[in-house]
Amino acid sequence: MYTVRQLRNALRLCITPALNWRFHHVTPQFVEDLRSVVGDSNVSTAMTVREHHGRDESMHSCQPPDVVVWPQNVEQVSRMANLCFTHNVAIIPFGTGTGLEGGVNALKGGVCFNMTNMDKVLNVNTEDFHVTVEPGVTRKSLNTYLRDSGLWFPVDPGADASLCGMAATSASGTNAVRYGTMRDNVINLEVVLSDGRVLDTAGKDRRFRKTSAGYNLTNLFVGSEGTLGIITRATLRLYGVPEATVAAVCAFPNIQAAVDSTVQILQCGIPIARIEFLDDVMVNACNKFNGLNYSILPTLFLEFHGTEAAVKEQLKQTGEIIQLNGGSDFTWAREQEERNRLWTARHNAFYAALALRPGCQAYSTDVCVPISQLPRIIVDTKEDLLQSRLTGPIAGHVGDGNFHCIMVLDLNDKAEVHKVKEFTDRLARRALSLNGTCTGEHGIGIGKRKLLREEVGEVGIDVMKQIKATLDPKNLMNPGKVI
Amino acid sequence: MYTVRQLRNALRLCITPALNWRFHHVTPQFVEDLRSVVGDSNVSTAMTVREHHGRDESMHSCQPPDVVVWPQNVEQVSRMANLCFTHNVAIIPFGTGTGLEGGVNALKGGVCFNMTNMDKVLNVNTEDFHVTVEPGVTRKSLNTYLRDSGLWFPVDPGADASLCGMAATSASGTNAVRYGTMRDNVINLEVVLSDGRVLDTAGKDRRFRKTSAGYNLTNLFVGSEGTLGIITRATLRLYGVPEATVAAVCAFPNIQAAVDSTVQILQCGIPIARIEFLDDVMVNACNKFNGLNYSILPTLFLEFHGTEAAVKEQLKQTGEIIQLNGGSDFTWAREQEERNRLWTARHNAFYAALALRPGCQAYSTDVCVPISQLPRIIVDTKEDLLQSRLTGPIAGHVGDGNFHCIMVLDLNDKAEVHKVKEFTDRLARRALSLNGTCTGEHGIGIGKRKLLREEVGEVGIDVMKQIKATLDPKNLMNPGKVI
């Protein structure tokens, strides 16, 4: 029997270690201990290696880990996690380093677990539509592997990220409007917890399409950004490769007309596979970069998947909706080469934006609002960009209400970096004020922790902290991220 | 600074209260305290009322709460939860009482929160495809409310359950193959925690289609069966009403052929809306009950949603697949009346099963396996039924790998009840041995806690217990359920 007071103290204890824990840095003996687990060649303390692992593709400057290890299997991950737990050393999982919110920065030093050597595709199942992958398998390598199976994995964030890394950040991208995000497509995860225990979030080797058995641990770990455990295996849903694919492009007189078309396409139940928005600034940049001559107007890039007859019908319906909304230059293509040509502008948008200011870097903002709020937030954001004199062409997954400003800036110009930071905070708060989220698909990482608090409120943050504290009582798992 | 030992003790303390806590029963003064929150007419200690709230539609016999309350708003729920927290009294949320695993049984007495007086539909949004409902709103009442909006909520477990209750058990049903389960369709939940704190799982009034902001609390509460908090509001995804609906029925020479057809339909990417399986015993029961003359064979009931042209094409493709697999008697219908006639057998399956043994009761089992394993498990289960001399015709959501035996039994015959219990445990373990789950959509409730442990393993149960203990440290929320 415990008293209420004892329990309250226990609970407080569970919430507070994050604030109080002292991280230990890595000693030579500790490095030897790691070597004894994975072998000499799979441990590095070289500064170049550590620096390579100390940052991702975001604006956050490099914070290298003390040591990088390359585990070969889950047993090694578990043993090394347990070593870290015993010695109070931080753990940072590393996939391809293509994150956008500083998720791999080693704020407290510690051990970076580079998972790329665990790269096997396991158990492709063509009857049950699933596959199991190790954390080194990337999205593109999986689809290459699946090429002759008639199946594919549709979640596509752009970068050739590792699938377990995509699970860790709840990634999505262009296909989400039809196929959902990682949250919808992860069936099961194998996770190493901070003390080295190995958890199968849905039970070992389970791969059903649905369940009501207990708490949904799978979706607790999807989007947890390495702060609750290291993902060492993921079972994912697969889909049949569509018989036919048609790409299309259409310009609109204004943003409202483009968004209205999107809403009506969804209202009609047209199972659109992709519906991407570029603003006039981005279209102009793409024209210049790719030698194209699209009208410099808000533009939608669309893709339809289905049977020959189905995509034909979808295309016809969509054409009618677009016409009703004053769309122009509606062009479509069926063959792959033609489709690629049509989508060149969208595919190269990031590089086209970069080319606006040679020698600069780019940082992608990431907010998501109810679709009906898109015209308002995009118009306001464009006005803000003008007034702030910042370069930030807009590309968006408009079917989800998710859009990005590709901020092109000189990272050596401290004043500009500060201005961009202020702009992105304003943008996030604008999304929050419209019932939206401060991140649709990039995650919280380092920079959005304050925004997360504003988004979910005090009770929400407290509950997240309680969960973090009970699963990672020493706050060793990717410390300083998310909460 | 805490020592590892202190933290480990805290953690252990967090896991164990469930085993040690002493529940207090309700005193007259406590009932007065409840009355002062919700008013005299919204509190009852009458035995008939308590007994009405002490069981659901499962085999578990009645265990009445000490008192039933009808809160009118979230503030009252919060104040009464806090009263329970202070006085160590158990809380059991109650929707429509249509659960199937004893989720409302008051194992430890306490206060039953009947949520049906909070029954407003809030914020139907036709551009963003969502609605917010209070916990008294049922699935059918919502769709009646939406009738003129061109939108609908597709999750359909059969019973006219409350939507928040459906969220609590992660319900699904016939449409899940196309539209997903509650896990896929809940955008946000307002939840009262055990100490009375009010949590908005995705942040207050947030209603985006996707997010990567922090831990997915929404999906932690979906399927938590009232053991983590009381759901007081749910924001749900809506869908456009399809332009055309076609229903179809087809018989197969054997179970394998029916399942093969299902797999091929999914492989072809046909967006089938429903695909339901009845075994020969069930078809025979339906023929007798409804005066039909279907061939007494494994039978699929199908439904297609889309535009006129799309459903026509889906029907044609499906017809070809069915023919290749030796299907016969393929019949389809377009008009609502005709469709209802065609699906009568499926709709009345439960009552047709009951009619096999007049005066008996029915209990529905609920397992889910990878689709490819369905023929094997159904054949084995039918053999088991024969050998056990039990009546249990089979109906299944075959597109999800989920099926039910409608066990018809005499609840007064202890030996038969015991035999059914043994059979259902064998069935669940058969599902587990085929990588499946012991519950696809009914939940764990009272009877499947041991099976849950077998399904998710020791680490899985420990993690669930940690989460339960940190969010409900006094184990007051629906105690004795799930874990």
Automatic annotation (TrEMBL), chains A, B:
PROSITE patterns: FAD_PCMH. It catalyses: (R)-lactate + 2 Fe(III)-[cytochrome c] = 2 Fe(II)-[cytochrome c] + pyruvate + 2 H(+). Keywords: Acetylation, FAD, Flavoprotein, Mitochondrion, Oxidoreductase, Transit peptide. One of its GO terms (cellular component) is mitochondrion. Residues 60-241 form the FAD-binding PCMH-type domain. It is an enzyme of class 1 (oxidoreductase). Its EC number is 1.1.2.4. InterPro entries: FAD-bd_oxidored_4_C, FAD-bd_PCMH, FAD-bd_PCMH-like_sf, FAD-bd_PCMH_sub2, FAD-linked_Oxase-like_C, Oxid_FAD_bind_N, Vanillyl_alc_oxidase_C-sub2. Its cofactor is FAD. One of its GO terms (molecular function) is D-lactate dehydrogenase (cytochrome) activity. It is found in: Mitochondrion. GO terms for biological process: lactate catabolic process. The keyword Flavoprotein applies. The keyword Transcription does not apply. Involved in D-lactate, but not L-lactate catabolic process. Belongs to the FAD-binding oxidoreductase/transferase type 4 family. Interacts with CSRP3. This is Probable D-lactate dehydrogenase, mitochondrial. It comes from Pyxicephalus adspersus.
